[in-house]
């Protein structure tokens, strides 16, 4: 059991640009393919046991039911040997060329099989983010025209969104068939839109309703009437909407919230937006998301560039951590924090729209794998807070186990109990009277 999860991530974005002719492979740009052993050693240097990481989707998923597991086998075996538990990021902003893009109605069905086959090959893995930042992926691909299908209409946006979220839902179901005690950490961008003037209030309210769309669908949360009308007017059918209300898997989820300086927006009278910088901050915006869904929370992404003073990222880390503690002290069940990513990234200053090769100094380490000041600060933060957070409260602990603990009887008992709950769910969905899980199964200790 873990009272708090400290993590970092390997940036594995892989969208296409230029009409789908060019792929932006962040793993390649950040030299992960060559340096992954060193990167995994750096995790241990930092004192981390959790890593947001997934195999490169375009190099692994070669066709429906056809895979090249070579790189995944090697890297995940190494993580297992190091007793590091990955939070597996299966789809991060892009799909293989043979799938096309997120307008493809077959994406959910195809992705469901990919998720099932991955979980079958790596049954020791318990934590997943099937599709990363679903709202951002749909927005950048089909509303702003930056990636993948590069469309910019409401219909394209709704189409991408419904395919992405359905893919996430059916992937969760597929993984649970293999690993019934799997936990899904959504990792979604937490947004807010500020009206600049009275004329902009209505537009800001509309944006603030739509920012919840991916999680509303994923968690089966009814949208308001205006948003429902927007969905129907732009290609979602009533039957498709009902699917999301009837197939949510909240019980298995932690709501991951990502926050950067660019997550808050200023809305102008003509409906255009611009970055407002940090106004409310992570604390207030996370409260809004928590009050809507009432799920355990994890801060799954943040960073800022190291600037000319050298301490800008260190200060941002301190400020985000202060927000996490404020949320925790106020009783919101926040279970983890992530500085994203382990190393610097490349070309995010253009939101991956251009292949310029510009290094973005946001990592715990630079691309030569030398520690940045924020890396040293994060290592100290983990060492200073780990033990205290483990003893502060027994009210919530994630039922998560490291690779070395997988054969423990308590883990097998947890899986047996979770398998029984899935059986109950299937009976209930079929319309039969649900039964209690078998009483001869040992129910593991659950979070309070």
Automatic annotation (TrEMBL):
<protein>
    <submittedName>
        <fullName>Beta-glucosidase/6-phospho-beta-glucosidase/beta-galactosidase</fullName>
    </submittedName>
</protein>
<dbReference type="InterPro" id="IPR051923">
    <property type="entry name" value="Glycosyl_Hydrolase_39"/>
</dbReference>
<dbReference type="InterPro" id="IPR001360">
    <property type="entry name" value="Glyco_hydro_1"/>
</dbReference>
<dbReference type="InterPro" id="IPR017853">
    <property type="entry name" value="GH"/>
</dbReference>
<dbReference type="GO" id="GO:0005975">
    <property type="term" value="P:carbohydrate metabolic process"/>
</dbReference>
<dbReference type="Pfam" id="PF00232">
    <property type="entry name" value="Glyco_hydro_1"/>
</dbReference>
<dbReference type="GO" id="GO:0004553">
    <property type="term" value="F:hydrolase activity, hydrolyzing O-glycosyl compounds"/>
</dbReference>
């Amino acid at each position: 059991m873990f009272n708090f999860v400290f993590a970092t991530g390997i940036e594995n974005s892989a969208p296409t640009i230029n009409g789908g002719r060019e792929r932006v492979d962040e793993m390649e740009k950040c030299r992960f393919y060559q340096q992954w052993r060193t990167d995994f050693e750096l995790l241990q240097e930092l004192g981390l046991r959790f890593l947001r990481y997934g195999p490169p989707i375009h190099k692994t998923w070669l066709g429906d039911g056809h895979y090249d597991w070579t790189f995944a086998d090697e890297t995940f075996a190494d993580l297992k040997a190091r007793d590091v538990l990955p939070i597996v990021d299966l789809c991060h902003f892009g799909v293989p060329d043979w799938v096309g893009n997120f307008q493809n109605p077959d994406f959910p069905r195809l992705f469901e099989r990919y998720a099932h086959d991955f979980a079958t090959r790596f049954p020791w893995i318990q934590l997943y983010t099937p599709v990363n930042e679903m709202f951002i992926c749909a927005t950048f691909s089909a509303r702003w025209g930056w990636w993948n299908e590069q469309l910019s209409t409401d219909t394209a946006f709704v189409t991408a969104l419904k395919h992405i979220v359905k893919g996430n839902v059916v992937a969760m179901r597929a993984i649970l068939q293999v690993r019934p005690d799997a936990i899904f950490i959504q990792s979604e961008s937490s947004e807010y839109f500020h009206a600049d003037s009275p004329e902009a209030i209505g537009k800001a309210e509309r944006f603030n309703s739509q920012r919840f769309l991916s999680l509303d669908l994923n968690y089966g949360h009814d949208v308001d009437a205006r948003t429902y009308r927007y969905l129907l007017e732009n290609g979602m059918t009533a039957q498709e909407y009902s699917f999301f209300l009837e197939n949510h898997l909240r019980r298995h989820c932690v709501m991951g919230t990502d926050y950067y300086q660019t997550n808050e927006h200023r809305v102008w009278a003509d409906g255009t937006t611009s970055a407002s910088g940090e106004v409310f901050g992570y604390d207030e915006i996370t409260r809004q998301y928590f009050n809507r869904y009432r799920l355990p929370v994890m801060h799954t992404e943040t960073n800022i560039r190291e600037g000319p003073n050298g301490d800008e990222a260190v200060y941002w880390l301190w400020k985000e951590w202060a927000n996490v503690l404020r949320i925790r002290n106020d009783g919101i069940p926040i279970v983890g924090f992530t500085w994203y990513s382990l190393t610097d990234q490349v070309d995010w200053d253009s939101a991956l729209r251009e292949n310029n090769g510009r290094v973005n100094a946001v990592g715990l380490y630079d691309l030569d794998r030398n520690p940045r000041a924020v890396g040293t600060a994060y290592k100290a933060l983990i060492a200073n807070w780990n033990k205290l957070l483990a003893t502060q409260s027994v009210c919530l602990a994630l039922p998560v186990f490291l690779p070395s603990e997988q054969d423990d009887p308590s883990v097998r008992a947890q899986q047996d109990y979770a398998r029984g709950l899935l059986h109950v769910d299937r009976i209930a969905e079929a319309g039969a009277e649900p039964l209690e899980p078998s009483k001869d199964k040992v129910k593991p200790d659950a979070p309070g």
